[in-house]
Amino acid sequence: MAADAHNKRQHLLNLRSRLLASAPSNTMRQDKLIVAGLEFRSRLVVGTGKYADLDLTQRAVRASGAEMVTVAIRRSNVGQSPHEPNLLDVIPPDEFTLLPNTAGCFNAQDAVRTCRLARELLDGHDLVKLEVLGDERTLYPDIPATLVAAEQLTAEGFRVMVYTNDDPVAARRLEEIGCVAIMPLAAPIGSGLGIQNRYNILTIVENATVPVLVDAGVGTASDAAIAMELGCDGVLMNTAIAGARDPVLMASAMRKAVEAGREAYLAGRIQKRRYAEASSPLAGSFF
Questions:
Q1: Can you tell me the distance from the alpha carbon of 59 to that of 158, in angstroms, rounded to the nearest whole number?
Q2: What is the torsional sign of CA 150, 148, 106, 83?
């Protein structure tokens, strides 16, 4: 009888352990990024620039697990140069959601024209990433010009994911215009400095009713995890992967970091304390 009771108890303990182990994965399967009505399992968005060749681009993108891939229309061949290697051969639109961007545009007019070109080249594709730069050295966004371009693009039926600075007021204004996602920088594009102002990013996240994705400045996996732990809906990166010594390995690391950061955010971290607290409290003990 004692042996039966022991075996039953052990069976219940094993069953409980399996249920607890499966709970996070079930939660994560149901936890999807939704942008403009599109659903994504991955919360990592990656770029396609700065790689040595298209083969490396493809291998890194696949290692990242990203489902949304951003493409610089002014710098990439997506069909406008028929006799040159085509990015779409390695990043096929039937497998990935393409996010044409306006990288390299320094005024609203150029940005709008670039989005129109993307829609023409990609058979009516209307999901775009808007960036209007204001400074060639830092590549900081020109917010007044970004607002102008965002208003025009939304009026023309584009679904605009917008690159902006880490200003909560600018983020709110862009959302009011109709942008479908707000993408504040963590630090200057390509700097690898990580999140420089966590409180501004946190404020943007708390106030937004559309997805917030950190865009620019991520340097390594811990930066991506921090962004997700702050409650961001996703992270976009290019240089951090393409510029790594081993881009494919870094892409894999970023994939895991974004997933871990999201899980930590959903789990709820412990409160920070100044002093230690025993893992096994003595209250109620018999000795």
A1: 30
A2: positive
DSSP strands (E only) in the chain? 33-35, 38-40, 44-47, 68-72, 97-101, 127-130, 159-164, 181-184, 213-215, 234-237
Active site residue 32: no
Residue 19, pLDDT > 50, answer no
Alpha-carbon gap, residue 100 to 131, rounded angstroms: 11
Nearest to residue 244, comparing CAs of 232, 258, 254, 230?
A: 254
pTM for the full predicted model: 0.85
* Alpha carbon distance 166, 136 (integer Å): 18
Question: What count of other Cβ atoms lies within 10 Å of the Cβ of residue 19?
Answer: 10
d(CA 243, CA 180): 29
Q: What is the identity of the amino acid at 74?
A: R
Residue 28 pLDDT level (bands cut at 50, 70, 90): low
Report strand pairing: 38-40 vs 33-35.
Answer: antiparallel
Q: Is residue 170 within 8 Å of residue 164, measured between CB atoms?
A: yes
Tokens standing for 22? 């499966």
145 within 8 A of 108, measured Cβ to Cβ: yes
Set 8, 129, 256, 272: catalytic member: 129
